[in-house]
Amino acid sequence: MAFEISSEQEMIRLMARDFAKKELEPKAAEWDRHGIFPLEAVKKMGDVGLLGMMVPPEMGGSGAGAVAYSLALQEIAYACASSAVTMSVANLSTEPLLKFGTKEQKEKWLTGLAAGSLLGAFALTEPGAGSDPGSMTTTAVLKKDKYILNGSKVFITHGQQADLINLIARTGQEKGSRGLSAFLVEKGTPGFKIGTKEEKLGLRASNTVELIFEDCEIPAANLLGNPGEGFKVAMLALDSGRIGIASQAVGIARACLDEAVSYTKERRQFGKTINSFQAIQFMIADAATQIEAASWLTLAAADRKDRGVKFTKEASMAKLFASEAANAISYMALQVHGGYGYTKDYKVERLFRDARATTIYEGTSEIQRIVIAREIIKE
Ligand code: CAA
Question: For residue 231, which atom of ligand 1 is closest to its CA?
């Protein structure tokens, strides 16, 4: 693999690091403790171009590409994993429009989403359709020039704050993944309301809600792509989303390692700092190696995306490896802190909780293995 981070990508990484240090890190613990969605900080992420990194400048984005996006997202996650998932889903929500949107749809929404003046969300999961989105029951029925939506979506990241929802719903009689279509639903549309807000273990500064549609009428012009293409739209969006979550996991893992290393330099037991014990050194060595591997897997998937090469398998490998590594490393970092790590006085407690979601959302580790195996068998 001939791959090098360009000076422009490095500049974006440093900009994101600086932004995260100033705008996110000082408040992240408080947002987490009180479950505050940091709307102002999210707007600022938009202002510095972090929410539309895949969208070309002529459509309001920064056009920085997937490698730069991954590097920036790692930095955001290092400081505040909740803000990282906001950034990831906001960027993800631009991709279906970019690939499948009509000229009118792009003009109406994409520019705003990319510039951060609008926030986008992605609604696929339902109470009975998680790993198997093909079993969803939300319907969209065409009546004259409108689609009528009925059903509900769950675990929708910043669904409450989003101005525009990428929604997948059933339009056809076919079973499974075949009868689904993608739609754009604006906030405030009559019949669309916000349901339960989840009280989560981690990522508490990322708002996660249920969306309810009751005879919600949207213009037929809000169909995204062709009728019946909804599953494909969702899968393509998730391929990209998985690079985002892998990057988030790398950022969390790095933060865990740094917290652990700095604690081992201060903590003294048996008359020495604990970093002089080989048991601790081995933990540090294993974690650093896993982070390096996770980071390269993630950047390799992102690089394929930037080169226009299929990256489904690589994104799933990156997501699988990085999220499992982040969980193992957060466990290690908390272990190194001993009893103190189990208290809210130490950042590692938040990181441990935040890491947990990464093996679950945007496809569990088990789903990633299915995707990887199917792609290998196809090859
Ligand atoms: N790109 C393009 N097309 C794809 C594709 C991809 N990556 N993956 C599948 N498809 C196409 C297939 O080619 C197939 O097309 P045809 O019917 O024309 O042959 C069609 O989609 C159906 O594919 P499968 O038969 O493989 O579908 P399946 O029902 O067996 O499901 C799956 C495959 C990989 C398990 C998929 O259901 C999946 O990814 N599940 C996990 C869902 C998920 O990640 N949910 C997370 C929700 S989002 C989230 O977490 C939000 C958040 O806010 C963070």
Answer: 21
Label each residue of 163-206 as H, E or C: CEEEEEEECCCCCHHHHEEEEEEECCCCCEEEEEECCCCCCCCC
Give yes or no: residues 152 and 278 share one domain: no
pLDDT tens string 70-102: 999 999 999 999 999 999 999 999 999 999 999
| Full-model pTM | 0.97
The domain in which residue 256 lies consists of 232-378
Nearest atom (ligand 1) to Cα of 176: 29
Query: Which band of pLDDT confidence, cut at 50, 70 and 90, is reported for residue 1?
Result: low
Among 232, 316, 371, the mutation site with the greatest number of ligand 1 atoms within 8 A of its Cβ is: 232
Say how many Å lie between the CA of residue 280 and the centre of ligand 1. 41
C-alpha–C-alpha distance, residues 341 and 358, integer Å: 20
Residues 74 and 133 in one domain: no
